[in-house]
Amino acid sequence: MASTNERDPAPAAAAGAAPGPAADLQAFAVQLRRMNGEINRLVHGFAAGQGLHPTDIQALAAILDSETPLTPGKLREHLGLTSGAVTACLDRLESAGHIRRSRESTDRRVVHLHYLPGARVSARTHFMPLAEATERARGRFDDDELALVLRFLTELNAELDAVRVPRR
Questions:
Q1: Predicted local distance difference test score (pLDDT) of residue 2
Q2: Cα–Cα distance between 86 and 80 in angstroms, integer?
Q3: How far apart are CA 158 and CA 168, in angstroms?
Q4: Which of 52, 84, 140, 166 has the highest count of CB atoms within 10 angstroms of its CB?
Q5: How far is Cα 96 from Cα 91, in angstroms, rounded to an integer?
Q6: Do 9 and 30 touch, CB atoms closer than 8 A?
Q7: First and final CA of the chain: distance in angstroms?
Q8: Strand partners, 102
Q9: In whole angstroms, what is the distance from residue 42 CA to residue 130 CA?
Q10: What is the mean pLDDT of the chain?
Q11: Which residue, 93, 87, 101, 80, is CA-closest to 46?
């Protein structure tokens, strides 16, 4: 984190720092951290209301967003957890009625993870304020601006996906 006032990058410019890419990067960092914090606040509330851990909600999001059914191994890689931690997470999610595990392939050793439709209703209800806030913000942009924002977020997520954190 920078040592300047991170809520307003203007003090760095006023102090003689030339405006440009560094100031822009700081402004992006501040806004991305703020958005992450607000989404985490909602995630923690949902997790607490469901008797789950916030990491369990990350797992649910990964299962929901996956284009094909995830396996526990792929989920482990995505979350950066140990096999035991993923098993415990999946046990909690299954017990709470959020997911089911199935062996649908010809190789019976392969387990697929599925987000249950009934659990989606609960999540949609909790996260409706996020959807509504997103829609209000989207309404302040035209289609070309939204396409650019979506492109930026897609590219940023691809870059972040390529970053590998060393395991302990």
A1: 43
A2: 9
A3: 24
A4: 52
A5: 9
A6: yes
A7: 23
A8: 112
A9: 8
A10: 86
A11: 93
d(CA 168, CA 160): 19
Structure tokens at 32: 């991305």
Task: Report yes or no: 75 and 63 within 8 Å, Cβ to Cβ.
Answer: yes
Report the C-alpha gap between 83 and 149 in whole angstroms: 36
> Is-contact 101 112, C-beta < 8 A?
yes
pLDDT given for residue 14 in this prediction:
42
**Whole-prediction pTM:** 0.76
Q: Which two tokens stand for residue 61?
A: 């999001």
Distances (CA, A) of 136 to 49, 121, 139: 26, 22, 5
pLDDT band at 12 (very low <50, low <70, confident <90, very high): very low
As to burial, measured by CB atoms within 10 angstroms (0-12 exposed, 13-18 middle, 19+ buried), residue 27 is middle
Structure-token pair, residue 2: 């920078």
Q: What pLDDT digit, counting tens, does each position of 14-61 carry?
A: 444 455 666 688 899 999 999 999 999 999 999 999 999 999 999 999
61-86: pLDDT as tens digits:
999 999 988 999 999 988 989 999 99
CB 73 within 8 A of CB 113: no
55 burial level (CB within 10 Å; 0-12, 13-18, 19+): middle
In angstroms, the CA 116 to CA 131 distance is 20
Structure tokens at 70: 């995830």
